[in-house]
Amino acid sequence: MTDTAAGSPDPVSSPHAHGGASVARAMFRVQLALAPATLFGLWMFGWPAIFLFLFTVAASLLAEFVSQRLRGARASLADGSALLTGWLLALSLPPWSPWWIGVLGGAVAIVLGKQVYGGLGQNLFNPAMVARVALLISFPALMTQWVHPLPLHAPAAPGFVEGLHITLAAPPLPDAVASASPLGHIRTELSRGVDPLRAAAAPGAPALPWSGMRAGSLGETATLLLLAGGLYLLATGVITWHIPLAVLAGIALPAALAHGMDPARHLPAQAHLLGGATVLGAFFSATDYVTSPGTAPGKLLYGIGVGLLTWVIRTWGGYPEGMAFAVLLMNAVTPVIDRYTRPRILGRRRDGREIGLPARETPP
Amino acid sequence: MSVLRRLLSRSWGVHPDDRKRPASEAPARAIAAPAVLHIPLAQHVGAAARPAVAVGQRVLKGQCIAAAHGAISAPVHASASGRVIAIGEVLAPHPSGLPVQAITIESDGEERWIEAELPADPLRLDPAEVAKRVAEAGVVGLGGATFPASVKLGLGLRARVRTLIINGSECEPYLSCDDRLMRERAAEVLRGVRLMLHATGAREALVGIEANKPEAVAAMRAAAQRVSDVRVCVVPPRYPMGSDRQLILELTGIEVPADSRAADTGVLVHNVGTAFAVHEAVALGRPLVSRYVTVNGEAVREPGNYIVPIGTLVDDLLAACGGLREAPARLLMGGPMMGLALPSGRAPVVKGTGGILALSAAEVGAREPGPCIRCGSCVRACPVGLLPLEMARHVQAGSLDGAVDLGLKDCIACGCCAWVCPSRIPLVQAFAHAKGELAERERARLRRDAARKLAQARAERIAREDKERAEAAARRKAERDAARAAQSNPEPA
User: Cα separations (Å) of B393 from B232, B254, B377?
Assistant: First the structure.
């Protein structure tokens, strides 16, 4: 008599095989994709950045663990989602921020951004972006305090102890180190009536190189490395091309158009694409599964919305960057997008009614 | 432009590792009837057959032992010569583990066939006669649907179908019974196809075979070389290509309306195994008493294809192919995507059994489900265009109507969604549960309607009777009044 090893279990439903995909694997691949740009950012901004990164990630993991316990769920960090949330948040922070910015941000992201909704998969808004925006609104000065790149090996770079001091005690930044972010600088100049082209060309103005050697958030500057990571995600099927391409197009097209019509008031598309965490946002923040639409047309719509809103906020809003706000705004309309971009069911029209029978030649 | 179209066109289905080799490479071996066969009465869609033999009666191989009952039904035949030793319950080949009525035959090992009267030229028979012989032979859809084949042939004739599609796609992983059949019996399959063309009046037959079976394609092409009305078409390997609507769309470009039958669009789909069985039934007078079955899975010692008498217990079949290496983590009837988990090997092989799989724990790879992360993999995989994640959410929340609005009734339970789900959510199980509840609700509605109709009829009857009584009383009163008036008012003389 053949009995299964499990004895006589409850009826198990088909399918009895699985493709092997797992949440942990997807999260791991995203982290792998982020690794080059992250390492570059940590190297470029030195020990304070490394400490901030560790604080942020640790706080996220701790917040996840404690929240799961409090919810009575089986506590597990194995799916890698909390690590990724903390990681993405850290990449969006000014690299020399004090430790408590990272800790508070991590806690806000996990607790208010995710766990209060019921945990993984239940949240409406991208947790990392919720935390970034909460911090930006609460601590606008700290959250826009940028530093020049000071790579680890540079003589002026803070050492291990000095870096720890910067992260823990947050001394005022020396002028030699402080910098404006490129988009922020141009915006300030624009508000003083300086043509952005001239502002960008002025000596001492922060540039926007592809390499990422510029002031900015911890992990958003290395455009090329982020692009490589994004392409890796596309190649491994973790994300589809729809959202990143739509986001980039949503920013670049209006930017190019506006710049073409009035170059004195509008930045060229390239500045928008290279600055302000555009690539990080397009490939890593906007593509968050939980908070973005599920179908291809929905993804396109959502991505274009994110891109367009980012450009609008940067152009007319109160913030020189704006990706985080745009992502959150489009997160809010994701359920609506999902509702109106349902796929057509085979044999039915979009309204759910049956399609007609195909024409047949009249029977003899 | 074609790149753009490719980017924008919906990709459906999944590409599971097919694991058909090495089982598909060895010639099929016929298995001798075991000492005892348990032949269920309901091996088809529709009403169960009714026993036509008594306990103790001697039967010949191929003798009808249970007759079809009703318009949609199929008879059942003895798959070995011997003696009927019981008519009673056996374990159903179904996950429920419930019993099913069956006729138990003790084989005498002599394999004596029943005499049959053979037509000189089967293709000269009247189409209705072909269908009749197919019906009498108990042929049902052997792709797994087990719909009585003759009913479908008759439907094709009535609906004036133009195209007959012969499904040789065999998209389920592990299974290769159709592959072996086409390689080994291509000529017979082709004769069956031509009989089906004749019986339905269709003009051409398209044999759809997935590209991962080049030998079967070559064999069928060679067989069909001199026949103009049968075309062998290679379709891309993709699960579930063998699903009716998907195969029709792929081969003819016709999208069958969701609530219609394929025949309404002029297309009829039959499995290659059914074509072979039709040939055996009509040309050789042999009813359906055995079939090709793939025995596969890591727990099986000698994976391969076997020609198995219907009613052979799964245990006996496994013993005949070398036994098991290890206790399987899951014992399946059918493929891994849509097959049924058997509670034990004491269930019999039936007409719809294409495979018996004894899978190891590693092959099943079961894991605890996690929360949905809305990754959308299931949406991309669904061949029907449903939103499995949303449907499951509605089912979970108890909102059956919400799930129906999202297309629950169009779900074909192919399992693509659950196969790709990174959170291992048992989506098919959720939908099966919801469909069961839906069916229960429908039955309850019918019961309620029937009860209401009865109550209404009763109320009407009572009202009618009251009215009749009142009228009768009024009539009597009028007559009395008239009589009294006549007495008190005599007419003046």
Answer: 43, 32, 15
Q: Chain-wide mean pLDDT for chain B?
A: 91
Q: Of the candidates A16, A121, A352, which has its C-beta nearest B364's C-beta?
A: A16
* DSSP of B115-176: P-PPPS-GGGS-HHHHHHHHHHTT-B-TTTT--BHHHHHHHHHHTT--EEEEEE---STT--
Task: With beta carbons less than 8 A apart as the criterion, state whether A344 and A352 touch.
Answer: no
* ipTM exceeding 0.85, yes/no: yes
Nearest CA in chain A to B264: A357
Whether residue B384 and residue A345 make contact (CB cut-off 8 A), yes or no, is yes
Torsion sign, CA atoms A189, A190, A194, A200: positive
Question: What is the band of A215 on the pLDDT scale with cuts at 50, 70, 90?
Answer: confident
Question: What is the Cα–Cα distance from A207 to A205, expressed in whole angstroms?
Answer: 6
Per-residue model confidence (pLDDT) at position B203? 93
Q: Alpha helix (H) ranges present in B413-426?
A: 416-420
- Spatial contact of B365 and A17, defined as CB atoms under 8 Å apart: yes
Q: What would the pLDDT profile of B189-218 be if each residue is shown by its tens digit?
A: 999 999 999 999 999 999 999 999 999 999
Residue A364 has pLDDT above 50, yes or no: no
Which residues make Cβ contacts (< 8 Å) with residue B416, sequence separation at least 6? B12, B13, B14, B239, B240, B337, B378, B381, B382, B383
A-chain CB neighbours of B339 within 8 Å are 14, 16
Tracing tokens 């593509």 back to the chain, one arrives at A287
> pLDDT digit string (tens) for B284-300?
999 999 999 999 999 99
